[in-house]
Design goal:
The protein is of the alpha/beta class. 34% of the residues lie in helices and 20% in strands. The chain is elongated and about 75 Å long. The structure holds 6-O-phosphono-beta-D-fructofuranose. The site of 6-O-phosphono-beta-D-fructofuranose has 13 residues, from strand 12.
């Protein structure tokens, strides 16, 4: 009898998810002796009644590696340990359905699970592993802020998208003698911002790790725009904040959504700058455009190797581990370790130093 492998995607989507799914399925097919089932919307496909599961075989994943998003769909409010349900009076309550999930996995004869997701999803993986589930993690985030892996797929694609957008802002900034503010994603870490700013040659990059001093930004802009002639490009991470200030966020009304919703720092920054200097400015918020579309070739190659490695971990019984790319090698780390730290841009980071060497203002 064939063994059964469950695959799912959780948390925010990311270019390359389908590439990983295909690689897991094809590796299992080529190894033989495995049947792969996909759970829709993270573990919800198992927890819902009726269940929403799909059989994934060699042919059903054909060509999906170039497709953005995830054929399994995703959700960032499907934590089985904090699952939103409506009680008899229609009120939403949060309940722990982890035991129910494990029972259902047993009823489905699932031998192993591959969970493709970011920090939040891997925290769930660790808790399930501690409860006896044979689970392997595949790291995912465009932010590239997972500590235990040098790279996550989707990041290069996001940087390409953001760089292309900023390149376009340069020509219009130059024509109109304007300051252009491009707000990019990156809630805790400024990797997308820093890479984009260096690739596009921006004058200013503001990352969450370095709270900015408005005076420094004004000086930099005034060195670039004199008598309304000249232009400047600023790339700002959504998680950036002024010294002694807070990040710009909105409350979410989505039931079970546990993240703080960031976005809007670009407009706040423009208002603050315009109180001080009389120069035309415009803001472009790139938002989810950075998470959409086809993965670039680099991410497809990385994601394919992540998927293949995840299946290797399943075959060798290395459960409770997450795939990792470290120093040009594909390896694995205990999920517990992977979720204990974030990978921030540190002062000694060579790209940060390089940005400074290019004369880029980092707000400090
Ligand atoms: O963590 C990845 C990320 O894209 C962040 O950069 C961003 O703040 C967040 O997800 C947005 O999440 P959502 O799609 O739930 O709004």
């Amino acid at each position: 009898m064939k063994k059964r492998l469950l695959v799912l995607t959780g948390g925010g989507d990311c270019p390359g998810l389908n590439t990983v799914i295909r690689a897991v399925v094809r590796s299992a097919y080529c190894a033989g002796g495995w049947e792969v089932i996909g759970s829709k919307r993270a573990f919800n496909g198992v927890l819902e009644d009726p269940q929403d599961l799909v059989t994934l075989d060699y042919h059903s994943v054909s060509g999906i590696h170039v497709k953005g998003g995830t054929i399994l769909e995703t959700v960032n409010k499907g934590d089985p340990f904090a699952y939103p349900i409506q009680d008899e009076s229609g009120n939403w309550v949060i309940v722990d359905r982890s035991d129910d999930l494990i029972r259902r996995l047993n009823d489905l004869d699932i031998d192993a699970v591959v969970s493709i997701g970011g920090d939040g999803s891997q925290k769930i993986s660790q808790k399930l592993f501690e409860k006896g589930v044979n689970i392997v993690g595949v790291p995912k985030t465009i932010d590239n802020d997972l500590f235990a892996t040098d790279l996550t797929f989707g990041f290069q694609t996001a940087v390409e998208i953001a760089t292309e957008a900023v390149d376009k802002l340069v020509t219009t900034a130059e024509s109109h003698n304007r300051v252009m503010i491009a707000e990019v994603m990156g809630r805790d870490a400024g990797w997308i911002c820093l890479h984009t700013a260096v690739a596009a040659g921006a004058e200013i990059a503001l990352i969450p790790e370095i709270p900015y001093d408005l005076d420094k930004l004004v000086d930099k802009i005034q060195s670039r725009v004199v008598n309304n002639r000249g232009f400047a490009i600023m790339v700002v991470a959504e998680g950036a904040r002024p010294k002694d200030g807070v990040v710009v966020s909105q409350k979410s009304k989505e039931i079970g959504y546990q993240n703080v919703r960031l976005g809007g720092i670009g407009y706040h920054l423009m208002a603050d700058l315009q109180d001080r200097i009389d120069i035309d400015m415009r803001v472009t918020v790139l938002g989810h455009v950075q998470r959409g579309g086809i993965p670039v070739a680099f991410d497809r190659v990385l994601a394919t190797q992540f998927g293949a490695k995840a299946f290797d971990l399943v075959q060798s019984g290395q459960f409770g581990h997450m795939v990792s790319y470290s120093r040009f090698a594909f390896t694995s780390v205990p999920i517990k370790e992977a979720i204990s730290y974030y990978k921030f841009v540190t002062d000694d980071n060579y790209l940060l130093q390089t940005a400074r060497n290019m004369g880029m203002c980092l707000g400090d």
